[in-house]
Amino acid sequence: MSRRYDSRTTIFSPEGRIHQVEYAIEAINHAGTVIAINSKNGIFILAEAKRPSALIADKVDNEKIYKLSGCMVGCVAGITADANILINYARNQVQNHLQAFNEPAPVEKIVRQVANVKQNYTQYGGLRPFGVSIVYAAFSREGGFKLYHSDPSGNYASWKSICIGANSSSIIGTLKEKWTPDIDLTGAKNLAFEAYCKPCDVQSISSKNFETMVLTLDSDDKPLFQALGTDEVENLLKENNPIKAS
Amino acid sequence: MECLIGIRGKDFVLMAGDSVAGRSVVAMKKDHDKMYQLSNRLLMAACGEGGDTVQFAEYIAKNIQLYRMRNGYDLSTKAAASFTRRNLADYLRSSTPYFVNLLIGGYDDSDGADLYYMDYLGSMVKLPFGVHGYGSFFVLSVMDRYYKEDMTRDEALVLLQRCIDEIHERFIINLNSFKVKIVDKEGIHVMKDLRPTTKQPEETPGTQSMDIV
After folding, report:
1. Reported ipTM
2. Which of A100, A130, A163, B139 is 20 to 30 A from A173, alpha carbon to alpha carbon?
């Protein structure tokens, strides 16, 4: 791997790689974990919000999970400042679509537009890529519950369950093992906590560090976004923490 | 001088437009089709300024196709109508406004058949029946009298024929042929052109005399 080819996004290495993009992807592996699981009757998202200092006020605005529209949510992992730009852009695009078509923007369209912005920074301008991975969770009448993920290269795909951020590779291993197509929301919640706790150091887990989101349908079949209460988070942690079980 | 008519039935939209293309006092073409296909189940009838109608209709049609290519599915009638209205409204306050009046009829699986009426100022309403042009002065009252919800195709065609007859009876301009199309679940169907049912004026032969007193 030659160091001569990695200082700019505008050049390929002899092996055919763009190192800056890969380093951007690497940067995300140091960020707070996000686990998203699609189930029969909803999507569950678990995000770890890293608190860099004890002095940070407890009741903080969302750091990981952002509402993009009435039916869509975006969860970020990576450089928060970069993420803010992209989330703002996504929200603008949602409203532009609403203004033009008078109906909710389809997820794929928004995912693709944000991904195209990310791709731009890997090809033009000589600027560094966005150090952000985004997981989108959405409900639509045509497609039901959907999960999408895009990374700094601008690639995106639809997922049954996904993990980004710290420990993502081992957590994805657990998800691959345990996810089934007929898993329900409760199963998804438990699976998320189980997968999160497995590679973790028990002492550092505290329920205050989690942001959660449950996406279901309400009685009028409209999408409903809810966070879990602290009690429920505590219970799920207790039940799925492997060390405590022994 | 143009007339566009749209009627929403049970699961279809019937649309008709006169087939005269005129400039000033001359009828240039007598079999002109003023309805444009936006997608498989979306039909737009446009009247107004000569070049604007075609230009705007094609612009909208191609953009709707582009959306389909990019996103993999057709826009619903409501979304397509909103998109069209958005364009009309945006161009209105530019240096190149479009002077077109539109009727958009379409069918989609979630909402069934829908008819939208739009004018050149960018106002839009969803209607059970709509008419553009001078013809509306005569046709709307006929519609009010005979229209009912959930009509069948045959009933709608009878109503349309009544409208055309009324225009022929009272409108000073001779619109003696209408292009007719129906949009439904299966797509857009081209129907036979409709003409006013001819009524021969009564003739009383004989001499005419005047009594001299």
Report:
1. 0.77
2. A130
